[in-house]
Design goal:
about 160 residues; alpha+beta; five-stranded antiparallel beta sheet; 7 helices; 5 strands; globular
Length: about 160
């Protein structure tokens, strides 16, 4: 899967945006670091993902956009949500439900990415300013991308006319 990345700055916080197949995935690890520091980022994500309302949102999103989503496994998680012994990692969520809305990059510089819809939900859960400002920055980034593509198209058309 080809991936292009951009970095946006939200109140002096660098947040990575990766584009996979024309969809934007935002690094929720970067967002969590902004809220609780680097050492707590993974815990913030795990606590968020095990929340009942988060699971219901993720299940609804996956049902809408993922034809291969495993609903039975999702129901199993949903029934356990709220129990004090229930834990769930992003990796476990992906592997057991075949989810596509969250992506985990393993390794030394590993991070958890979420589709922009899901990342905004995450941002509003941990820090309202992150979801609002991130949305604005992504829209600005998309506009710049369209302008560049239009400019490149005009340059290409001009060059072809000059050659002919």
């Amino acid at each position: 899967m080809g991936k292009k990345t951009n970095i946006i700055s939200v109140q002096d916080i660098s947040i990575t945006i990766a584009s996979f197949n024309e969809d934007d995935y935002i690094c929720i690890t970067d967002m969590a670091k902004a809220k609780g520091g680097e050492s707590r980022a993974a815990d913030i994500i795990k606590n968020w993902i095990r929340n009942r309302s988060t699971l219901e949102f993720l299940g609804t999103w996956e049902t809408l956009y993922n034809p291969d989503f495993k609903v039975v496994e999702f129901d199993h998680f949903k029934m356990q949500a709220g129990l004090p012994t229930f834990t769930l990692s992003a990796k476990q969520w992906i592997e057991e439900t075949n989810a596509i809305g969250i992506y985990v990059q393993a390794g030394r510089y590993g991070a958890t990415y979420a589709h922009k819809d899901i990342a905004f939900e995450f941002g509003s859960a941990i820090a309202q300013f992150l979801s609002c400002i991130s949305l604005k920055n992504i829209k600005d980034l998309k506009i710049l991308k369209m302008i560049r593509q239009s400019w490149n198209g005009m340059q290409s058309a001009f060059c072809q006319k000059q050659i002919i």
